[in-house]
Amino acid sequence: MRLETDRLLITLLKPENWPLFLRVHQDEQCMAWVSAIPDDEELQKRFSECLLPWFFTSDHMLCLVVRQKKTGEAIGLLGATAEGYPYCQVEIGYAFLSQFHGQGFGSEALAPLCEYLLHHCGFHKLTAHVVEGNWSSRRILEKNSFLLEGVLRDNRLLRGRWKNDWVFVRLR
Ligand SMILES: CC(C)(COP(=O)(O)OP(=O)(O)OC[C@H]1O[C@@H](n2cnc3c(N)ncnc32)[C@H](O)[C@@H]1OP(=O)(O)O)[C@@H](O)C(=O)NCCC(=O)NCCS
């Protein structure tokens, strides 16, 4: 599998992408809106699961690496976790190394992922849970035709404080 935009190449996670996986999950700025920094054992477990072959009925996450075409440098990760038949829904996630934030890469990478999930895999509904206040995440979803469907109050414990989640949805 390979997705492409003007500036980016997006491909399946491979064993050699462990350094990127580690860097993203240990990037304090990047993880500030996601979770606590996972410990090494937890990260190894997640990485192994992400390497499993993915089909749209899989329980585990599809994990993709985003790299810049110009430099070949890996800059972030995209994820998609399906709720298969009969729901036809998939939850997306994304995290880019903080040094690459604010350059339009997030919005650009999300576009072909959405197309792939809706039109190649055949999902009916894409969802994203965003911690309330994560405006850059909200903005890239809105730029990719997601609409705010509601707020889940105290939906996750982030660094010792309960946080609301915005639920964003895009329908086929
Ligand atoms: C969320 C993330 C993927 C966005 O990627 P990015 O490449 O930085 O985003 P882009 O540069 O494409 O777009 C960011 C948009 O948010 C806007 N933005 C940034 N901070 C903002 C703020 N405080 N208020 C309002 N808008 C803001 C920018 O202006 C830009 O919008 P524009 O294109 O209309 O100017 C990236 O910041 C990231 O990896 N964050 C850490 C992990 C994370 O939060 N993941 C999401 C979990 S739901």
From TrEMBL:
GO terms for molecular function: acyltransferase activity, transferring groups other than amino-acyl groups. Residues 8-172 form the N-acetyltransferase domain. The keyword Ribosomal protein does not apply. Keywords: Transferase. Pfam families: Acetyltransf_3. This is Protein N-acetyltransferase, RimJ/RimL family. It comes from Izhakiella capsodis.
